[in-house]
């Protein structure tokens, strides 16, 4: 006698439900792990005057941690072992300082940007002062002080002191300065009206509508303002070299110029 067997059950229906559930959990776990894998972090140390332009350049690069401060502060931190991958200084001296200590990766250093030095005042003040040899800076300060980055260590302050010395007015204001940790702090003192005048970079003056440029210091009154960049020798981030190259790309050059910097 022949017996008619029922149709064979499809394979997937014969698999125990527990196995199906286990497979689904495994797939979900793998997807979660893949999504949760942290992207390589790149730490970039840059002079405070670069903040606005650098933030715009790094927009969308969530794996880059940009830290801004005075070049002297950043260089000292790198010297003390801070985990930086890239350093962009506002002058050659602090980059030279690290290079002499073998803290930069050989062959990666280059001059990235240039800038100009200006005298600023609060935008609502009617300050008129022509920058020239022995100009009346002390008189223009009245009872106030001159905001300037620390001339003993911060590049903007060094450039400013050199310019004022070359113009023969440093001695008249040396005891009336309001030194700050970085050039952005000096900018803020003038923007808030806490000091009547300040010395900053042209790129800094361009980002704050609360200040106006009174005049530009002659280029030959101070050393050329140069921003060198390099990889830190202790860097282990594989993407750091590509990011450093991007800083000097043609696309980046357009943005740098838009923010008031010169591009070699």
Structure write-up:
- By secondary structure, this protein is of the alpha/beta class.
- It contains twelve helices and ten strands.
- The protein has helices at 11-14, 17-36, 51-57, 71-79, 92-100, 137-141, 155-166, 170-173, 183-191, 202-205, 240-247, 250-258, and strands spanning 42-47, 64-69, 86-88, 110-114, 117-122, 146-149, 177-180, 197-201, 211-216, 226-231.
- Strands 2-1-3-10-4 form a five-stranded mixed beta sheet.
- The protein is elongated, with a radius of gyration of 28 Å.
Largest sheet: 5 strands, mixed
By oligomeric state, this entry counts as single chain
- Stretches where pLDDT is under 50 for at least 5 consecutive residues are 1-15, 17-37
Helix content: 25-40%
Write the H/E string, N to C. Answer: HHEHEHEHEEHEHHEHEHEEHH
- Distance between the ends: 97 Å
**Structural class, from secondary structure content?**
alpha/beta
Give, in spatial order, the strands making up the sheet with the most strands: 2-1-3-10-4
Average pLDDT confidence is 88
- Tally of DSSP β-strands: 10
Q: Please report the number of helical segments.
A: 12
Principal-axes shape call: elongated
Query: Rg from C-alpha positions?
Result: 28 Å
Q: Kindly estimate the percentage of residues that lie in beta strands according to DSSP.
A: 15-25%
